[in-house]
Amino acid sequence: MQIGHVAVACVIASFAPELTGGRIEAFSGEALAVAFLAHWLPNLDSIPIWLKWAKPNFHCTWSHTFLFAFLVALLLAPFDVGWALLAFSSLLLHYAADLPSTIGLPLFLPFTWKRFSLRLWADTGAGTWTSMKGTYQQSWTWILEGGAFVVLFIRAYQVGAWPFA
Amino acid sequence: MLKRTPILAVLFGAVIAFTVAQTFEDSARPFSFGQQAILFLFSILPGMGFAMLLDPYPRKKKEEYLKINFYEEQT
Fold first, then answer.
1. Given B53, B70, B71, which is nearest A139 (Cβ)?
2. For residue B30, what are the domain limits?
3. Tens digits of per-residue pLDDT, A34-68?
4. Å between B57 CA and nearest CA of chain A
């Protein structure tokens, strides 16, 4: 998933009160910041690849595991339990959004390298024009990413956020 | 891509937008014209996906991409 991550992160921010036991308001600046930062965190594994510190196949490995989500939540919990809960949910939904790609996610690292995938669209790499173009030449990316934007519209309506404020 | 695909995308989008409006719109708080327009534009996105399922070109592209390893070391 590429642009659809924006919609998914916004939808997570819309559920902030439910996910954090009322600690964070829906669509608040805090909710959007935590949801977006946590949602993009796994894809920062591209940076060590660009810097040649890691091999290209480092993408979608350690940062896309339940262990990583748990560690991020554990690190945030002492500062703010709401942030930890929202970040954990955001990371899990990032994995769910990436599952349809054929790259597959080794969710249970370090216990097993088995990769899980729904194989709805072919992986086209990361961080290049080819990967962006290739993603949107396939039907299921439009269905799921477009669907995420429709869900965002519904959530904005239900919560009374812009453009329904 | 077939010429009919974008036309089908708009048609499917209209069906999705209508279904969403029927399901979620509160009669006490109806959508304005602008909100309906946003919903329709958003609905065209998944509509495009459903239209592409009926088009052989995206399937061919998927098969092509499945044969490429995008994570090989550049030499």
1. B53
2. 4-66
3. 998 898 789 888 888 868 788 787 888 889 999 99
4. 8
